[in-house]
Structure formats: structure tokens, C-alpha cells
Amino acid sequence: MNGKNSAIEVRDLTVRYDGSTALSDITLDLPQGKLIGILGPNGAGKSTFIKTLVGLIKPVSGTVLFFGKPFKASAGRIAYLPQRETIDWRFPITVKDLVLMGRYPRIGWFRWITKADVDACRECLEMVGMLKYLDRQISELSGGEQQRAFLARALLQDADMYFLDESLSGVDHTSEEIIIDILQKMVKKQKTICMVYHDLNTAGRYFDWMVLLKGRLIAAGSKEDVFTPENLAKAYY
């Protein structure tokens, strides 16, 4: 792929994590306006990969560009949804307050939330089927509801690129279908979405572009090119 047409350009990326090499010499381009699955077995470096892309982990070497610019210059165009297990769901905050946090990258942390912001928050919650939980404490939500609330926060941010780390892990079937439907609609608006994913049974149905990892890059490209018996054998066996 021509880097000039890429949403993300990764060159020679090597990452060490907890004293060992998690990713070695990753080079790839990812296109704009695609729903991209980041696949691979446990320990393949999937979460490490997207955390490095969004600046949460510093690589040993390599470069990453978003729309031709470094992360700091593109941060306002990027949204990141962490693994649900990393969130303190006991924190005393309502669904409304959680979602409104998606507005702060645009308005700044020290500006007042306006009625327009609240109206937009309600719209995003309605999109994910969570408007009736507007005033509920996040600790009272199910796993699928929590993920939908976080997706609403990302929608309110109105980014150009979204990174989701295992956002379908452990959610109920209804929530999974709602989330995938929303992501596919976002892609039609030329949003770029990268999701760490583990279920090979549905990966071919959900994603139109894939990255297959096992500490190194096995393959990246259209699902027809990546999701082959040969590549899967290299990654999982």
C-alpha cells in the first residue's frame, strides 16, 4: 500500500515489555475507512501493538504516523477504548458523566459542559441503546452495558480513528451485535477502526481488513489475503 493513502504507517516497530520482546520489526500500512481486526493467539502482542500506536507504551525502535503525522500531532483525531478489566468500575460516576468525558479532548478539561454537549451525549447513548441508563452508576451495569457506554463516550469524541482493545470480550450477544453494527456504520463515514479480537469463528464476518500477529507480523491486508489456512497455521500452530 502507498503510505500516502494510509491512515497509519508503521515502520520497523520493536517493543519490549516486561523484560522480553513483545513485538519485533513490525512494518505495515493500514488504510482509512476500514474495520480492522488485530488477530493472533494469546501473548501475540495484540494489545501491546495498539497501546504502542496510541503512545501508552514506548517502543524500543520504529516510527508510527497517523495521517502522515506523529501521534502527538494527531491525538485529537484518535480515540482509545481500553480493556474493560483495566477500568475501576466502582468509581462513583454516572453513565452520563462517563460519556461526557468524550467531550473533553475537544473543549478542554476546564470548560463548562453545555446543553449542546448534553444533547450530543444523549444522542450517542441512544445510538448504543443505553439512553435509559443515563443516570445510572457505572458499577450497576453489566459487562456488555459497560462496553456500550464506553463506545458512546468514544462516539461523542467524534474521532477519525478508534482503537478498541478486546471490546467484545465477555459481552452478551445483543451488545456484541449492537457494537458491530455501530462500528460498521462508522466505517461507512470513513472512520478507521482497529479492534483487538480473538474469535476466529466470527472474525471473517466482522472485519474487512486484518492484521495477524505472533510477536511479529504474520500478514496484513484484506481478509481474503490474510485469513488463509497457511497464515492461520503460522500464527496459531
What count of helical segments does DSSP give?
A: 10
For this entry, what is the oligomeric state of its chains?
single chain
Mean pLDDT: 88
Encode the helix/strand succession as letters: EEEHEHEHHHHEHEHEEHH
Q: How helix-rich are the residues, as a percent range?
A: 25-40%
Count of domain modules: 1
Largest sheet, in brief, is:
6 strands, mixed
CATH homologous superfamily title: P-loop containing nucleotide triphosphate hydrolases
- Under CATH at level 1, the class stands as Alpha Beta
Can you describe what's shown?
With 237 residues, the protein is of the alpha/beta class. It has a single domain, classed as Rossmann fold. It contains 10 helices and 9 strands. The protein has a 6-stranded mixed β-sheet with strand order 5-6-7-3-8-9, sandwiched between helices. It is globular, with a radius of gyration of 18 Å. The two termini are 28 Å apart. The mean pLDDT is 88.
